[in-house]
Amino acid sequence: MRIDVVSIFPEYLAPLELSLIGKARQDGILDLRVHDLRAFTTDRHRTVDDTPYGGGAGMVMKPEPWAQALESIAADRPEGSGRPVLIVPSPAGERFTQALAYELAEQEHLAFACGRYEGIDERVIEWSREHFDVRPVSLGDYVLNGGEVAVLAMVEAIGRLLPGVVGNPESLVEESHSDGLLEYPVYTKPSVWREREVPAVLLSGNHGRIAQWRRHEQFRRTAERRPDLLEAFDAGKLPRADRTELQDLGYDVVNGRLRRRPGAEGTPQD
């Protein structure tokens, strides 16, 4: 996969040289290139921003340096590849999810535009659609100083899904959000630590019971921390043991979906 990142702070992306993503770059699995937006300016002050039309606080990123940078990336796309996907981190974008990470991991070429200040001139986004499939994407319902933090998170989430990046592919299947639920709790040696014991079922050697316990812990944790995920969970083919566990948590299966019983004992409260 080819990834291009444009930023006025290219050094902010240095952590992408570390850990699994850094190794994927060294191994040739991930071709990641970081570009300094100021290199595409034409004035001696390397200006990338100006005051907003209509007034208001802050500055807006100028369109021409962005056009020059993005044209350079589009012209240098891998031979035979389709249109690159341009991801614009923005609190006004679609929510970044594990499902979206899997979708983007199927692409051959991604580009990221790291905005700063009050954002990028909107005409850049409109113009970019001539050369890219544009996806404004948000990490969550909050505002960051720039897109670099979001890019670090998204590149790691996407990159680790590429074949050969994570040593044991099975670990990707068991993670939080891979099946719409949060991950179960994990433990390691010693079996007793500061008077706290590892759940006995994990020491039993009964893999069927362990799998069921982990599944039920996923339900419990998700009900406590992210009940919204349970409302979207496909429960149509759950076995009886799972349905019983969910009923104990205050949920019933209705038309293949989980519905929380109002006032059910032990049910997480809003």
UniProtKB/TrEMBL annotation:
<feature type="domain" description="tRNA methyltransferase TRMD/TRM10-type">
    <location>
        <begin position="1"/>
        <end position="231"/>
    </location>
</feature>
<dbReference type="InterPro" id="IPR002649">
    <property type="entry name" value="tRNA_m1G_MeTrfase_TrmD"/>
</dbReference>
<dbReference type="InterPro" id="IPR029026">
    <property type="entry name" value="tRNA_m1G_MTases_N"/>
</dbReference>
<feature type="binding site">
    <location>
        <begin position="139"/>
        <end position="144"/>
    </location>
    <ligand>
        <name>S-adenosyl-L-methionine</name>
    </ligand>
</feature>
<dbReference type="InterPro" id="IPR016009">
    <property type="entry name" value="tRNA_MeTrfase_TRMD/TRM10"/>
</dbReference>
<comment type="similarity">
    <text>Belongs to the RNA methyltransferase TrmD family.</text>
</comment>
<keyword id="KW-0949">S-adenosyl-L-methionine</keyword>
<comment type="function">
    <text>Specifically methylates guanosine-37 in various tRNAs.</text>
</comment>
<dbReference type="InterPro" id="IPR023148">
    <property type="entry name" value="tRNA_m1G_MeTrfase_C_sf"/>
</dbReference>
<dbReference type="InterPro" id="IPR029028">
    <property type="entry name" value="Alpha/beta_knot_MTases"/>
</dbReference>
<feature type="binding site">
    <location>
        <position position="115"/>
    </location>
    <ligand>
        <name>S-adenosyl-L-methionine</name>
    </ligand>
</feature>
<keyword id="KW-0808">Transferase</keyword>
<dbReference type="GO" id="GO:0002939">
    <property type="term" value="P:tRNA N1-guanine methylation"/>
</dbReference>
<protein>
    <recommendedName>
        <fullName>tRNA (guanine-N(1)-)-methyltransferase</fullName>
        <ecNumber>2.1.1.228</ecNumber>
    </recommendedName>
</protein>
<keyword id="KW-0819">tRNA processing</keyword>
<keyword id="KW-0963">Cytoplasm</keyword>
<dbReference type="GO" id="GO:0005829">
    <property type="term" value="C:cytosol"/>
</dbReference>
<keyword id="KW-0489">Methyltransferase</keyword>
<comment type="subunit">
    <text>Homodimer.</text>
</comment>
<dbReference type="Pfam" id="PF01746">
    <property type="entry name" value="tRNA_m1G_MT"/>
</dbReference>
<dbReference type="GO" id="GO:0052906">
    <property type="term" value="F:tRNA (guanine(37)-N1)-methyltransferase activity"/>
</dbReference>
